[in-house]
Design goal:
By secondary structure, the chain is an alpha+beta fold. Helix content is 11%, strand content 20%.
């Protein structure tokens, strides 16, 4: 996940449009069905300590971007480890315009830059002979 500021750069203050890495590309998350529990999960997964209540108006904040969301109806309790482990709709089941992107305000220090998850590097065993 990552948070983007109005200029499309990573957020430096923990406030921004939330995007997730899905199917090889970054995509915004729709505000529809995105609650405070989902905001807490998103922020904590980026290393922040928590989240302010969700703001649904990316237009007023100037944070909408141009890409339509690819993830919506994210229903987290707040204790999950990732947004994708929460019930959600994704891909062709999402009917949101860029103006419906969710704005998240994370609390504390974290990393809003976002790095796609990668597969773990193979572990090679080394046999020592003595």
């Amino acid at each position: 996940m990552r948070l983007l500021a109005a200029d499309g750069a990573p957020s430096i203050d923990g406030v921004g449009r939330l995007e997730v890495f899905l199917s090889g590309e970054w995509a915004p998350v729709c505000a529809e069905g995105f609650g405070d529990g989902a905001a807490v999960v998103a922020c904590k997964s980026m290393g922040f300590s928590g989240a302010e209540p969700v703001k649904r108006d990316c237009v007023g904040a100037g944070l909408c971007g141009v890409d339509a969301p690819h993830l919506s109806n994210v229903e987290c309790l707040g204790s999950e480890t990732t947004l994708l482990s929460c019930p959600h709709s994704e891909g062709d089941d999402v009917y949101c315009a860029p103006e419906e992107s969710v704005v998240v305000h994370c609390i504390g220090d974290g990393d809003a830059v976002g790095r796609p998850e990668t597969a773990a590097a193979p572990q090679w065993g080394v046999a020592l002979r003595g």
